[in-house]
Amino acid sequence: MKYDVYTDPFGMLKFQTQATLMAMEASAVIWMRVMGWAGLWSVLPSENTRMVTEKQKAFTEAGTRMVLGTMKGQEAHKTLGHALKPIRSTTKSNVGRLIKRGPKRT
Q: Which residues make beta-bridge pairs with 41?
């Protein structure tokens, strides 16, 4: 098995960038959902159910990708990057969807 850590010197930086973007998107989604609970942001009634079911799906996919990458002997940044994709995809789509709904107009 070949362990060449230096095949992509920017691999971990790419992963860290994606993880940072995911964290910022997650923070924005949490903020908009809390504002929705307070009646200040326009959210659908199904938002509470959605936030639970989407997490289950994203984390199951991420865990599967993590195990498969580890079993294949992939470099850490590749395994982590593949595992992060379903979570980042979810946060990114949530931000776009919730921003479009916008603040509640009274």
A: 103
What tokens does 4 get? 């060449």
* Cβ partners under 8 Å of residue 15, min gap 6: 77, 80, 81, 84
- d(CA 9, CA 105) in angstroms, rounded, equals 49
Global pTM value: 0.85
Task: For Cα atoms 30, 42, 21, give the angle at the middle one, nearest 5 degrees.
Answer: 30
Between 100 and 106, residue with greater pLDDT: 100
Give per-residue pLDDT as tens, 42-87: 999 999 999 999 999 999 999 999 999 999 999 999 999 999 999 9
Cross-strand partners of 103: 41
> What letters, b where the CB count within 10 A reaches 16 and e where it falls short, cover 15-54?
beebeeebeebbeebeebbebbeeeebebeeebeeeeeeb
